[in-house]
Design a protein that fits this description.
The protein is mainly α. The chain has 2 domains: about 45 residues, Orthogonal Bundle (Arc Repressor Mutant, subunit A), CATH 1.10.10; about 140 residues, Orthogonal Bundle (Tetracycline Repressor, domain 2). The chain has 10 helices and no strands. GO terms for molecular function: DNA-binding transcription factor activity; transcription cis-regulatory region binding.
Amino acid sequence: MDLKSKIAEAAERVLLANGLAKTTTKEIARAAGCSEGSLYNHFKSKEDLFLHVLRGQLKNLMGALSKLQGLAGQETVRANLERVAFAALEDFGASMPLICSVFSEPGILLRLREGFAQRNEGPHRANEAVEAYLEREKQLGRIGEGTDPRAIADLLLGSCFQHAFQTNFLGREESEEDRDRFAKRVLDPLFAALA
């Protein structure tokens, strides 16, 4: 593992344990087993490091969404959306403490927004990816003509985000089986409506 990755991994552990406000670069360097100066060779500031860690938090969801377009017309629409829901639950659950801490730091939130705009990224892109997939399935005749793909995308991902928020807020541990059950359950009313 290269030093930048080692620092990012250590920063994630320290940030999750202490929160953004109480995390210092000295603690991160100690956890990474490097000098504080080495940290600044890879990141301009604690905020840059935090943003780097935050961007890496949604790997499972981004992976599931990047595969989703290629799945149009394959397997079942429900199975394809269950994979997205499971990945969303996993990543939203793990990243919730970091996501929420962004809102307590207006400067970091502004920089995050600016970075997203420069890279044409943002949380809305996940909903757009699910919507585009469902539009394709609609064209293929695998979901009804009256289906509103954006509404389904918003309901699916919004439900997963809310569930992850509640789970974190209540301090509950959630197993893979729990996430799988929720992913299936949240799709029941959507597919009942589609039928």
